[in-house]
Amino acid sequence: LCRGGLAERLCRLQNRERSAISFWRHQCISDGKVPSDKSGVLIVKILEIFEECTIQVAICQQLAQSSATLSPEDAVINAEEPILKVLFTRETAAHLKSSPQDVIHIYPPWQKLLLQNADVPVIMNTYFSQKVLLSEHSEAREKTYGLKKMLIRKNIISLAQTFRLDDLDDKLHQESSDNQVPCAPQTHNKGDSKQHPPALSAVNDSLLEMVESQGAVGWREVQVRVVIQRVYCLPAREGYRSHTQGNKPLCATPITNSDPPNVRLCLLVQDAYGMFSEVQLQSLSSTDDIERYCQRWEGKSCCLAGMKILQRTTRGRALGLFSLIDSLWPPVVPVKVPGQSQESEMMTTNLPPPSFCYILTVQSGEIHVEVDEEEQISNLYQPPAVHGLKEILRISGRNERCSFWAQVLYQRLQSKHSVPIDQREMLLFVTDSTLQNVVHGIPKVVAVSVTASCVLSMEVIEALSADSQLVFFKDALWGNGRIICVERTVLLLQKPLLCSAAGADLSELTGPVRLDELDSTTQASSICALRGTVVGVNESTAFSWPTCNRCGNGKLELCPQDRELLYCNQCSEVVTTPVLKMQLEVFLSCPSRSQSTVKVKVWHEISMALFVLLTMLLFLQTYEVQSVLGKEVGLLSCYVHSITSHPNCVALEEIVLL
User: Fold this and answer.
1) What is the pLDDT of residues 490-546, one digit of tens each?
2) 380 vs 69, 271, 337, 349, CA distance in Å?
3) CA separation (Å) from 79 to 43, 49, 154, 367, 595?
4) Class for domain 203-212+221-236+263-333+353-382, per CATH?
5) Residue 568: Cβ-neighbour burial (10 angstroms; 0-12, 13-18, 19+)
6) pTM for the predicted model, two decimal places
7) Could you say which architecture CATH assigns to the domain 37-64+80-133?
């Protein structure tokens, strides 16, 4: 808040007001009696109670001072006494726990508001109020208050009615006995809930109106119509796990995990006024669900009911969520503007981006989401705008959402030993036709970092581990020269039915993939092509080990029955023809980095270029190391581990592309 500004002064005033109210109530409870000073005290008897816009409205009759000493049962209503409409805030109403026939003392500074076209005055500023209990019968009734579920009528006032808009839906303004909800939570029998579904009123089109009228407890008798802009999964909170029913569970991490999935299906929805909300639905049990829901639900209209507010978040507290919202702003079609007639031109430009968003979740036993899958795609829906990687790398903004279609060439798990394996990032090295056709200035392959919070389906994980795949990256984050898959990023093996290409070259690769050769611009944690001359061999690091020829397990044991054979625990079988893997470090002289020491870790079964050299070094004991020096090597596909300047050294590892 700006120092000395109106907002800061209002905040201080509210804090002093809350402190004064709390102190006054504490003093009344400590004294155990009604304050003796009756000057300026307004004494009323409640006749009727209802709720409107989270404010409790009590229709009361003012009592004379002589009636104040009587019990609520003995206080006779005089027809000549004026009728008042008393407003209580939610906090005051919860403190009073009042009901019809109760006598309330309202202490200054209460205020009376006289409306022009109304005969009943309105009493406001009723924070200093106290319910009178003067008889044993009243005290007994107060003790049994919690055992009763008193129904409070809720008057739902739409924004259209408030601003007197012309396209008014009359159904929203009808009050009926169905619009009553208990002021305390009820427990429903499962059998009863199926027989008696909650009655729903007419459909609204404003998320903010539902929040204001229904509050944080939940929407019980109303529903709101919205458009589903995005479907994705988020890691569920600790302790919230669902039971696995499918044979392909979703993983909250990019590592294959046999544990039950711990992710929740989420929707990013937008109403007719342009307001966004994130709806967190049930946990998923199958990996196929996310792609199915994306194809069936995105762009469709749906009705939300049985929701409750989980959190009201702001831009500063949820940068990832608002980066996705910003990619969908401004709306592609005119949206309604509160306070303006809908006959006037609705706005699409110069609209301020949303500064807050409500996180909604479902209530158990309520109607949740009703999607009309047969309906056409909404005009408000914004499909992901697909760009080529070349175009994305030239974006100058920070934390921009981007979608692209790319070929995955290589994947690598970040080996940070201090971080648990299920929380490590994974690097996917990708390319497309826009990068492969570039001559200079832009790399031919880029790294996409997949964080542990990005939910990958088992289908995607299995496909990437088997072969090179074309993957659709939806709503990845671009910023500071990196492409990152974070929360709310979705990876799909099929291109969505609805996407905007925006003139990008999305043709598939036809020829062999080319990598950038190692040079002065090469960075760590990248892949490159390497050629050079062998100038040294690190014999101390050379070793070999047997692996299973079926699953590749490198931790074989001696067979218990026959100590001369090897046994694989993963296959539970004897390995008769193991595959021998060999590792060796060689030093190369590269013309592109003549001033650097280039150290490469090579593998026997991978490297066809160094196959003869490794065989000579590891098997022929009489072969001199000097005989392999000066041999030409290349082109090798390598992963760059590190680049240091003191000493000037480049550490690489030979890899095999998918």
Assistant:
1) 999 876 666 665 555 666 777 888 999 999 889 999 999 999 998 888 877 777 788
2) 62, 9, 15, 14
3) 16, 19, 27, 46, 103
4) mainly beta
5) buried
6) 0.65
7) Beta Barrel (2.40)
